[in-house]
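PROTOCOL LOG
Step 1. Enter all chains and additional molecules of the complex.
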Amino acid sequence: MISDQQAEQLIRRAYNSIRLTRAVRGGLLCALFYGLVRASDSNDGTTGTSVLIAVCVVWIGLSIQARRKANLTTRASQLIAAGQLSQAREILSGVCRGLCIYKPVLLMACHNLAVILQKQRQWPAAWQFCELVRNWARKNSNRIRILSEAIRAECSLAMNNLVGAYESLSVLSRTALNISERLGVLQAEISYGIRVGRSDTVMADLPNKVALAGLLPTEQAGLAHASLALAAHFAGQSARRDWLWRKASLYCPAKELLAGQPAFGPVAQAISTGETQACKNVSGQV
Amino acid sequence: MAEVDFTDLIASSRPRRRLTKIGTFILIGFILLIWSLLISPETEQGQLIRMLLSLVILVGLGISVIRSVTRRKVLAKCSQQVSDLCLQEKWSQAIEPLRRLLGKPVALAQIRYQGLLELAGVAEHTGQLKGATEIYEAIAREQPHGLLGSLALVGKAIVLLKLDQLADADTIIRRLEVSVESRSLKSLVLLGRLYQQIKTGHYSDALTESSNKCELARTGMSSKAAYVYALLGLAYRHQEMSASSDESPGNSPEAGGSNAEVLWQQATMLLGPDILVEKFPELAELEESYPSAPPLPGTTEG
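Step 2. Run joint prediction.
Step 3. Record the structure below.
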């Protein structure tokens, strides 16, 4: 876990890095045009060519540095997948320091930081990183932007910001998503549906959602199944609720689910009441 | 099913040496720029040559950067398509995109190794076990340390067990048991060890600390923990069968409520019985003996 102050510092660093990168890229582009114009000048062609050489040298140097940062970002992604979050955060804060000529590398580093902060339940800081990616990667089809929108939706829900969640989900609903992107959005979609009282919408296309939820990592799979069970509970589909809760308990024990999300209380209670009732019926028959 | 030449795909996907691509172009560009500096600027011809050279270099650099970026985008898209198909276990449909992905040199190591691992998965699920071993060997040889190498070795061990090369598989698993640290890898190694114990009939060894094994599989493998549950179920079934043959003949494991049945129900709740049996054909015994978990109410499949 990092403190709020450290998170603030990280965000500031990322913004500074983006500003610096923009300035350097702009400067290099200007120098390139200046070099071209001077190179075609009949009186002083040498200056132009020298400027072009200088631009090339600087660009190559920065490209090498950016490649190194890209490798570090990939390494951080692997560490996140392996659950070594603090190591990954150290690496990524290094990537966000100073400039990086390749925009996708910085975007990925910021997105990965959002993932780490989301995993550590530091919702406001994670939200800010998503916002940063959202503002910088303007194209809705940008893959990193799509993944960040999904995290932003979840953070917004955790921060009780339903409008923010709606904004992100509506962007995502207008975009063609592949399976991994749909996996990223699934939990936010379910939670949002439940929060706005549209459990019937959540229950639509349930087999497909269950199949998708089964592809998630353990904790997320448990949470997704339990959320679907909650939606089934609100939609009055008790058979499906029981089945989904039973499956959720195979990923995460019911105690863990309830500790993480007290909102699942009604489902657990309804199931235990149902079981008690069933026991009473059986004993009555006997 | 079309035969795939795995050796060809491993070789063709190897990245070219860097100097053959942008590096070469940059080198040529530098030489041309320096040459243009040496041309006398006084003559009109010299000025024209210098300007043209600068333009050629810039346009060439631009084209090569655009081509490289486009190629990367195409690779990423193709890799995503393959990953999606493999995630959904549509192995045979993944063959063509994999051929496209690995048919040419892949500069990005991460995409290449992911593609190779998926190709090994395709080979394993389409019954081309020798091919799968070949791919896992290549990955482990190229990446001897770290996550990828360990993943490839676990995969290889399981395939070797299927090919009845038990001693080789045991050596690999023994080595991995000592070296791996991450939870997800440990659970995969556990799966390999469990399968080896089932193959060799060491059911009581398979059942030692079974609840710890279930817990490790649950936290490390998500839905794929079903494989561990099912293999443990099979070990329980054999143990229960041998116990019942020692005692009264009427006390059969099919009587219901046995550990084997409970584990089979849990496994089939997470993954379909057909997927489980396809991965480990030994599990057909459990499929025939016990009912699978009920499907999601309102559907015909689980």
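Step 4. Note key features.
The mean pLDDT of chain B is 84.
The radius of gyration of chain B is 27 Å.
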